[in-house]
Design goal:
Oligomer: single chain
Largest sheet: 7 strands, mixed
Shape: globular
CATH class: Alpha Beta
Strand order of the largest sheet: 3-2-4-5-9-6-10
CATH topology: Rossmann fold
Number of strands: 10
Helix content: 10-25%
Number of domains: 1
Strand content: 25-35%
Number of helices: 3
């Protein structure tokens, strides 16, 4: 898939402290496989992780609220080419979520602005995020500047700027 990039741990580790462990036990990673760093890190942190991927026959857009009984949160790095549709679907499912996004063009249309009205939460990573195209080549990284997480019913404030440095390290 041309839109398939894998998130490195340095873009995932900062979000762990924002997940309320008293409320969040089971997390859906709907664009991930067992090899995903989201799956590995969230499991390591003690969460139950349900992961699905379109390559295994589960299309995220077919989920219903009823199917997500027992799921407390959705976390992933969705395909950027469909991120706005995915965000809208997450709001429709009405589950807390955190999605890694590119936010250029975030407010470019009335429809997008309306989608975020009274719901938008942002966790801005103060660093460039790196992505792998192939798990077999972990040193072959691509950088996308100014990537953030859009969140819903997770953060204590609507906008949180994560401490860090431009070179990709966090404090």
């Amino acid at each position: 898939m041309k839109d398939e990039y894998y998130t490195t741990s340095d873009a995932i580790e900062p979000i762990i402290k924002y997940i309320d462990r008293s409320k969040i036990k089971t997390i859906l990673a709907p664009f991930d496989t067992k090899d995903s760093n989201y799956v590995k890190i969230l499991k390591r942190e003690g969460f139950k992780v349900v992961y699905t991927h379109i390559s295994t026959g589960k299309d995220f857009f077919t989920y219903t609220k009823e199917e997500l009984e027992g799921i407390d949160m959705i976390i992933s790095n969705p395909p950027f080419s469909r991120q706005w549709e995915i965000i809208a679907k997450c709001y429709e499912l009405d589950k807390p979520f955190m999605l890694l996004i590119k936010y250029n063009g975030m407010f470019e249309s009335i429809a997008k602005r309306e989608m975020f009205r009274d719901k938008l939460q942002l966790l801005i990573l103060n660093k460039k995020c790196r992505y792998m195209k192939d798990y077999a080549k972990p040193n072959e990284l691509y950088q996308i500047p100014f990537t953030s997480y859009i969140a819903y019913n997770i953060l204590k404030r609507d906008i949180v700027i994560e401490a860090g440095e431009e070179n990709g390290t966090t404090k």
